[in-house]
Amino acid sequence: MSGMLVTLRGLRITYGEGPAALSDIDLDIAAGERLAVIGESGSGKSTLALALAGLLPDNARIVGDIAWDGGERPVPGRDIGFVFQDAGASLNPVLRVGEQVAEVAQRHLGMSWREAYAHSRDLLAQVQIPAPDTVLNTYAHQLSGGQRQRVAIAAAIAARPRLLIADEPTSALDTIVQAEIVALLDRLVQEAGMTLVFISHDIALVSGFADRIAVLHAARLVEAGPAAEVLRSPKDAYTARLISSHIGLDTPRLIGTPS
Fold this sequence. Notes:
single chain, alpha/beta, six-stranded mixed beta sheet, three-stranded antiparallel beta sheet, 10 helices
């Protein structure tokens, strides 16, 4: 890791006249790191992801600072890839898989359509889609949930982004496919030198790969630090409850440092 990719200071986000979805968030995200953001439903995890990606809705009011390395705000799709929770909803049902992935590459990398389509085939192979040449010409509804999520990942990395945000990307999948998707994301970001922000409610799921863990509770950041330290010696009572309820304080998964 070399330097900070993005720094959040005093970040507060509200929607309309409602209560704060995020309140006074101070967080550093280093270039090349794998950061897991953990918390219960409604804690502000997805709001944080959308704020980083520049995808907040129009009624969001932002106070505070999001400072990027180099000073220039990144472009969603080009500099930031986003994997949504529901791949079935995020993929276009009327476009073939190859067209959707190629469209990202053509728009952001300046490729010809032929080059972008070939690039999309390579990406499907990279995310370990069986028979990528066949899948190129299929529609999202013809694929399994795990395959759709792999296609969504291929589209998210098509423009070779610096930051990949995965917002609960495994919650709709069975346990075996969850592990496969997590391993795939981990491999892809390490090979490409990308930064990963992985949003989840399941601290057990991220304990084996995250470099750092940030814990959100009731719209506030209650704890952040190296994964091994947070897992071994949580400083906040809420973090301790998460660990004990999901993986147990004495589980062997906490022994050693995440790879």
